[in-house]
Design brief:
Layout lengths: L8 E7 L3 H10 L4 E7 L6 H10 L5 H10 L4 H7 L13 H13 L3 H9 L6 E4 L6 E6 L4 E3 L1 H5 L9 E7 L6 H8 L3 E4 L4 H9 L4 H7 L3 E5 L3 E3 L8 H12 L5 E5 L5 H10 L3 E4 L11 E4 L11 H13 L1
Parallel strand pairs: 1-2, 1-7, 2-3, 7-8, 8-10, 10-12
Antiparallel strand pairs: 4-5, 4-6, 9-11
Helix pairs in contact: 1-3, 1-13, 2-5, 8-10
Amino acid sequence: MKFNLFSNKNIVCIGGGNAMPKTVLRGLKNKNVNLTVVSAVLDSGGSSGKLRKEYDIISPGDLRRAFLELCNLPEEEKELLDFRFPEGELSGHNLGNLLFTASYLKDKKYGGIFKKMNSRLIGNHKILPSTISKSDLVAVLENGEEIVGEANIDIPKHNSKLRIKKLFLNPPVGACPQTLRRIKNADAIIIGPGDIFSSLMQVLLVDGIIDAIKNSKAKKIYITNLMTKDGESNNFSVKDFVFEIENCLDSKVDYIIYNNNMASQQIVDDYRKNNPQFLEMVDFSSVKDDDRYIGSDLLGENGIVHSPEKLAQIILKICKQ
């Protein structure tokens, strides 16, 4: 009988946005692991932000992205749930976001929503919110100015060259008990990739999350971004990303996965035409001999996204150790 080493490995994935679902979740979802997504739910911009403000709910956008990556629905149904209304009163709204909102308004309970959502996922994967409480992400810039709201950090209206010196949630909010249990019982905890302040730390700053990570016996893995981002990580190197994450955690991670293959300037310039918020490839030259750092060519087919399969193979190798 063939023994499967990765059977029942419990991996917690922390983050939001598009990066983590389209890379980490996509690479691991069909491997022999149990994934738990701990999703950002405090976004204040776009469709999610409007629904959050108008109906007093947690923001559904990042939950939807994780669901669409892990669910067992036919592709045409996934496309429908991801459909965004182009005009009219619903302009900018996403059908999946609207369905999440309607489900909450029907019963005023999140438990039933996540039970139904998780029943449609492949394997034993789960999607959980970091919190179900109201709060705003607040950044303090190096000049003392406070920026309130995830959207204003994500898309800066202030001087984007000013570094973020402090980040907090106002008011402080607690994590969901089930989320904390999943972190406690994890074999590996993956943070990122994703916007370091507006997405990743939005989750980490929820009361209970950091303590749960520190107290977990899981292997802690941070995946650095491929490119720097205007207003959040201007001129950041791999070491800068790691410093900010470990400073937030008040502890070191066990492994850092970073890209060590620079795309050509032409590829970077072409990518920036449609993604002007991203600046340059993240510099890795400051990384010296350190067993925690795992450098590899992580570039996907278009050169500017992480390859899901390359990431998956490195993560599984770490889990094997």
